[in-house]
Amino acid sequence: MEIIVKAPVSGYIQDITTCSDSVFAEKMLGDGIIIKPSSDSVLSPITGKITQFSDTKHAITIQSDDGLTILLHIGIDTVELKGEGFSSSVVVGQDVKVGDLLLDFDRSQISERGYEDTVILINLTADSSISKLQLENDVSVKNDILKITV
User: Fold this and answer.
1) Exposure pattern of 74-111 as b/e (b: 16+ CB <10 Å)?
2) Is 67 exposed, middle or buried (0-12, 13-18, 19+ CB in 10 A)?
3) Above 90 in pLDDT, residue 89?
4) Nearest to 108 by CA among 132, 129, 84
5) Whole-prediction pTM value?
6) pLDDT computed for residue 78 by the predictor
7) What is the pLDDT of residues 48-76, one digit of tens each?
8) Rg of the chain in Å (alpha carbons)
9) Are 60 and 72 in contact (CB under 8 A)?
10) Are 33 and 16 within 8 A, CB to CB?
11) 3-class SS of residue 64
């Protein structure tokens, strides 16, 4: 089954290997993309259920009914902000549709505190393949960015 993943934010999309954090760049958690955001709202890239949401509001995991699991990680080392600059719109167990608001984050506050505001999207699904539909260009929220076969 093929699942199209939408851009969770508007901005400049790049391959995950360009991420400044080696854990992500070396695909230790899985393959994906990064987006240098030009918007402050993160929307759901797939339809599914919120399965994890960090207390610090910087990381969300969504699982689709088809078995696809996506991690959205907002910023590099932003866990150290302890939730400052983030406001959530969802809770664990909540069903979401493509385009539903997940959270807002204050890009200027994050950068003023010395952190990157990069949005990282990782495919956590074992036994799947990923096709990157867009790289090295500007995307708008809800543009098709990945095709994942599960």
Assistant:
1) bbbebbebeeebbebebeeeeebeeeeebbebbbeebe
2) middle
3) no
4) 84
5) 0.96
6) 95
7) 999 999 999 999 999 999 999 999 999 99
8) 14
9) yes
10) yes
11) coil
58 is a catalytic site residue: no
Tokens of 64: 């689709």
CB within 8 Å of 67: residues ≥ 6 apart: 125, 150
Q: How far is CA 73 from CA 1, 2, 7, 10, 46, in A?
A: 25, 23, 13, 15, 15
Percentage helix, strand, coil for the chain under 3-state DSSP, each rounded to 5: 10, 45, 45
Catalytic residue among 69, 73, 75, 110: 73
